[in-house]
């Protein structure tokens, strides 16, 4: 038994030293080389600081709506709803989101609503919407803010993020950055 226990204890201590100590220091050191020293991408607007890579809730009609969140935009609880697409509660929730969107955007046909405006992402914290999701909101924002639809379209075009290396993923728009730019159009 002594032949098994002592090597197991030594291996456990070695793994703790490598995986808890050395690995943590390596990851922390690499994070120190990033622009924000590993503290995430922050954006300051009107005296408030926001994390640029975490979804924000924009419920005021003068702003572009974010993608719904399954975790109420709480970064401490990142998760999807884990409900199947055939779950009655989930379908009712999505229908409620569609109905709410239609109330706030009466000029839009129901078939024009992009899926990312009525379903949460896998993390529940996706800060991006599709280009189509931004375009479908132009009429509402134009009316409320008194800004021409062409100016808002131009703003959307300026904030499109291209796919990684031009290959990986769709074009998308960070809603927080778009709404800040919208506020700056005054």
Protein traits:
elongated, 5 strands, single chain, 186 residues
What does this 3D model show about the protein?
- The protein is mainly alpha-helical.
- The protein folds into two domains: 1-39, no CATH class; 40-183, no CATH class.
- Helix content is 42%, strand content 8%.
- It has helices at residues 2-31, 88-104, 131-135, 138-145, 149-158, 175-183, and strands at residues 42-45, 48-51, 128-129, 160-161, 172-174.
- A three-stranded antiparallel sheet has the order 3-5-4.
- The protein is elongated and about 80 Å long.
* Mean model confidence by pLDDT: 88
Our estimate of the beta-strand percent is 5-15%
Overall structural domain count: 2
Return Rg in Å: 22 Å
Separation of termini?
77 Å
In what order do the strands lie side by side in the largest sheet? 3-5-4
Compact description:
The chain is mainly α and 186 residues long. It has helices spanning 2-31, 88-104, 131-135, 138-145, 149-158, 175-183, and strands spanning 42-45, 48-51, 128-129, 160-161, 172-174.
């Amino acid at each position: 038994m002594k032949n098994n226990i002592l090597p197991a204890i030594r291996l456990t201590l070695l793994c703790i030293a490598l995986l808890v100590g050395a690995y943590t220091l390596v990851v922390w050191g690499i994070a120190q080389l990033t622009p924000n020293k590993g503290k995430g991408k922050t954006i300051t607007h009107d005296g408030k600081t926001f994390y640029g890579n975490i979804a924000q809730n924009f419920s005021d009609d003068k702003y572009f709506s974010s993608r719904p969140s399954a975790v109420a935009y709480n970064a401490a609880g990142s998760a999807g709803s884990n409900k199947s697409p055939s779950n009655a509660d989930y379908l009712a929730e999505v229908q409620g989101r569609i109905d709410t969107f239609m109330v706030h955007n009466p000029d839009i046909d129901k078939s024009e609503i992009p899926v990312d405006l009525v379903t949460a992402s896998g993390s529940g914290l996706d800060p991006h919407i599709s280009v189509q999701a931004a375009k479908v909101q132009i009429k509402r924002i134009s009316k409320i803010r008194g800004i021409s639809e062409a100016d808002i379209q131009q703003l959307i075009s300026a904030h499109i993020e291209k796919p990684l290396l031009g290959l990986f993923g769709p074009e998308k728009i960070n809603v927080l950055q778009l709404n800040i730019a919208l506020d700056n159009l005054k």
